[in-house]
Design brief:
It is a single chain. With 325 residues, the chain is an alpha/beta fold. It has two domains: 5-200, Alpha-Beta Complex (inorganic pyrophosphatase (n-terminal core)); 206-324, Diaminopimelate Epimerase, Chain A, domain 1, CATH 3.10.310. The protein is built from twelve helices and twelve strands. It has helices spanning 5-17, 31-46, 100-105, 134-145, 151-164, 175-188, 192-200, 205-216, 233-238, 249-252, 285-291, 309-324; strands at residues 21-25, 51-54, 72-73, 83-87, 108-113, 124-127, 219-221, 226-231, 261-269, 272-279, 295-296, 300-306. The chain has a six-stranded parallel beta sheet. It has a six-stranded mixed beta sheet with strand order 7-8-9-10-12-11. Strand 1, helix 2 (31-46) and strand 2 (51-54) form a beta-alpha-beta unit. Helix 2 (31-46) packs antiparallel against helix 5. It is globular, with a radius of gyration of 20 Å. It starts with a helix and ends with a helix.
Length: 325
């Protein structure tokens, strides 16, 4: 579903009429969430609006170069929220617990997203499943509304493109995404090298050790078409690693020539297994995750499944094998 003019008008009218906006996204925000929030933050500030960005989780260091990053907090605003702009998630289960009261009390909810199968029930929607990132959706909306795209906004949008396309190498790297990135570089002087270096060249040694352990113990299935690995809760503790150190590691598994899909199984709590899947074109992992109550994209999806890790692994791999064979 492409971004619709009628939806843009509905959201624009809401912004002009109301004041007191909360910008948030899914838990453990990535570059698309953070960049999308900041793009909206700068746009709303330019309109003279009262606005607050919060995720319930601290911003990770790789995004500290973004203009206005100091305004992205972990707590809800100290004033009543009139409208919540919820970025880059297709359901409300991923809103941080600290922000749930504000979400429930706000009269208006705006869903800003590019995921397939967005199930959020609200008349206020900025959704384009063909966009490479949620930040691209916001850029389209701002241009439609006739509101200026400043260098700060452009830097935030460029960051969403870089992170959600894997530095322009994933299957969602469209000509439109490349053209928008080139336009941002040309018009606003955003440095591709500086953004890349800040995001991708600041890994902690714990992340490298974690990657070594995960892939050192990885297993194959479906004749080498599937690569899977289990991540015990104790592993992160033993390596002094954090959840943030897991970010992006799964994509490395796709570099194996025979592999068509990669899956990580991680016990986040007793009886709760988080499943992350990545795939190459032709293998729709979103369909598999939906079977287990999850969501995402065709080539990148996830779900949380109750049960023992061995049981969950058997069920998920069973479905995944059908998809790759």
């Amino acid at each position: 579903m492409p971004l619709r003019a009628e939806d843009c008008k509905t959201v624009k009218d809401l912004i002009l009429k109301e004041d007191g906006f909360l910008l948030t996204g899914h838990e453990r925000p990535d570059g698309d969430v953070t960049g999308s929030e900041l793009a909206l933050f700068h746009a709303f500030k330019a309109l003279g609006k009262r606005v607050w960005a919060a995720n319930g989780f601290p911003v990770t260091p790789e995004y500290d170069f973004l203009p206005g990053i100091e305004h992205v907090t972990v707590e809800p605003p100290p004033w009543p929220v009139r409208a919540v702009f919820y970025c880059d998630a297709s359901d409300l289960t991923r809103v941080a617990p600290a922000l749930q009261p504000a979400l429930k009390s706000a009269p208006y909810l705006v869903s800003v997203d590019h995921h397939l199968g967005n199930e959020i029930k609200t008349p206020y929607r900025l959704i384009d499943v063909n966009a490479a990132s949620t930040g691209m959706v916001i850029h389209r909306f701002l241009e439609w509304a006739g509101w200026p795209v400043t260098k700060d906004i452009a830097t935030a949008v460029y960051t969403t493109l870089v992170t959600d396309t894997g530095n322009f190498k994933q299957a969602n790297t469209s000509s439109e995404a490349l053209n928008l990135a080139a336009s941002i570089v040309e018009k606003h002087g955003v440095s591709p090298h500086a953004v890349y270096s800040s995001i991708f060249e600041r890994n902690r040694i714990q992340k490298i050790r974690l990657m070594s352990r995960i892939f050192g113990e990885a297993r194959e299935a479906a004749g080498g078409k599937i690569l899977w690995s289990e991540i015990p809760r104790k592993l992160l503790t033993d390596l002094c690693a954090t959840d943030d150190d897991l970010e992006g590691l799964i994509d490395f598994g796709k570099s194996v020539g025979t592999v068509r899909a990669v899956v990580f199984f991680r016990e986040t709590a007793p009886g709760q297994i988080k499943v992350n899947l990545r795939s190459k074109p032709g293998v729709d992992v979103l369909k598999i995750c939906k079977l287990f109550g999850g969501g995402g994209h065709r080539l990148a999806a996830g779900c949380t499944v109750p049960g023992e890790i061995s049981e969950v692994r058997k069920k998920v791999l069973g479905e995944l094998e059908k998809a790759v064979l």
